C-alpha cells in the first residue's frame, strides 16, 4: 500500500514529464509497428483504414488527444507554460493542417492522373485513325500512278 502512495505521488509531482513520456512511448511503439508492417500490410488493415470510425479514432489519437493534453497541461494551475509544450502544440497543429492540405493535393493529383489517362487513350485513338487514313492515302496514290 505504501508503494501505491509513492507511485501516485510521483505521478502527481511529475505529471508533465510522465504524460509526455507516455505519449512518446506510445508514438514510438506505433512507429515501430508500422515500420515492421510497412511491406506486409494485411488485407484486414487496408479494410480498417477505409472505415469511418477507425478514421475518426485515428484522428483523435493523432491530433485531438495530444492537443487536449497539452492544453490541459497549460491551463492547469500547477503546471507552468514551457517552451516544449508550446512547441509541441504548434508542431501538432502544423501537422494537422499539412495533412488536411495533403488530402486535397492527393485528390487533385488523382484527378490529373485520370485526365492524363483519358487524354492518352484519346491520343492513341487519333494516332490509330491517322495511320489508317495515311495508309489509305498512300494506297490511293499508288493506284492513281498505275
Structure described in brief:
The protein contains 5 helices and no strands.
What does this structure look like?
By secondary structure, the protein is mainly alpha-helical. The protein has one domain. 88% of the residues lie in helices and 0% in strands. The mean pLDDT is 76.
Topology:
Blueprint (H helix, E strand, L loop, with lengths): L1 H12 L1 H23 L5 H7 L2 H24 L7 H63 L1
Which descriptors would you attach to this protein?
single chain; 146 residues; mainly alpha
Gap between N and C termini, in Å?
112 Å
Number of strands: 0
Shape: rod-shaped
Number of H/I helices: 5
Rg calculated over all Cα atoms: 30 Å
What class do helices, strands and sheet pairing give?
mainly alpha
What's the structural domain tally?
Answer: 1
Low-pLDDT residue intervals, each spanning 5 or more residues: none
Q: Whole-number average pLDDT? A: 76
Amino acid at each position: 500500500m505504501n508503494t501505491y502512495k509513492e507511485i501516485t505521488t510521483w505521478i502527481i509531482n511529475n505529471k508533465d514529464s510522465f504524460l509526455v513520456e507516455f505519449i512518446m512511448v506510445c508514438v514510438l511503439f506505433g512507429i515501430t509497428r508500422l515500420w515492421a508492417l510497412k511491406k506486409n500490410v494485411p488485407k484486414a488493415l487496408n479494410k480498417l483504414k477505409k472505415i469511418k470510425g477507425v478514421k475518426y479514432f485515428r484522428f483523435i489519437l493523432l491530433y485531438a488527444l495530444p492537443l487536449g493534453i497539452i492544453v490541459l497541461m497549460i491551463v492547469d494551475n500547477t503546471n507552468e507554460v514551457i517552451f516544449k509544450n508550446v512547441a509541441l502544440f504548434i508542431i501538432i497543429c502544423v501537422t494537422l493542417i499539412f495533412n488536411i492540405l495533403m488530402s486535397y493535393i492527393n485528390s487533385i493529383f488523382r484527378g490529373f492522373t485520370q485526365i492524363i489517362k483519358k487524354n492518352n487513350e484519346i491520343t492513341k485513338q487519333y494516332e490509330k485513325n491517322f495511320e489508317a487514313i495515311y495508309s489509305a492515302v498512300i494506297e490511293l496514290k499508288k493506284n492513281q500512278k498505275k
